[in-house]
Known about the structure:
Layout: H1 17-24, E1 41-46, E2 49-54, H2 56-78, E3 86-89, E4 97-100, H3 103-117, H4 132-151, H5 155-160, H6 162-197, H7 208-212, H8 218-244
Antiparallel strand pairs: 1-2, 3-4
Helix pairs in contact: 3-4, 3-6, 3-8, 4-6, 6-8
Amino acid sequence: MNTNQMPKTDEPAPATKADEKTLLSVPTATVVQPEKERALIALELEGRHLILRIDWVIIILGVIVLGICIFIQRRRCWGVKSDLKSVVLKFGGLPEATIEVNRDTQKIAFAAYTELVTRKIALPFDEKHDVITDVYKSWYQMFTTTRELIKQVPAHHIARSHDTRELVQSLIDLLNQGLRPHLTQWQARFRHWYEREIDNPNSDGLSPQEIQRKFPDYEALITDLKGVNSNFQEFARQLRSLAEARKTVARTPDQL
């Protein structure tokens, strides 16, 4: 009987070097902290300072949107295709002016065109129905509003643009040399006669159109009046061409 045999115990055997390597090679679990979600736009308080933080994504999108808006606006203002680059304005025997089509000249031309074609000044005189005193009243209103239109053109636009300056001068000549001479020659004289004639017992029962035909120089007055009308009709068509930057389609005088 072997008395040197070691008694059995429950203690584990000491680890060998191979076992230590195995334990070291076992991966350990790592706890990953979730990253805090970052707002695109944030307002933060740091000490006594209020800080606005904007993500680069918002800035880039804002620049892109702004660029698109500017492009569309410029396309509307300057990118419109036109048939004409310039228009020649001429009224009767006055010197003509060549006006380049641009935003300023188109705006002024459209305002002046609208004023002319909505008054009797650019409409043919109808001897059967029109009353001369009413025509003169409409002409005076046109004179006043066109003068106001000229005054509203910014002075720096006139100073920096030859075409704007020429257009404004054409409108001034239109009033002073195109309209004023007829009114100076005929308006006061006719009104004075008409106011007396309308109270004349011999005119009882006559219409205003019938009374005005009794004016001693009726034919000369009407001839001159129709000549002024014709010149204004043509000038209105030229203004319309400038405003629309295209050649206007031929129309009858009452379709200006």
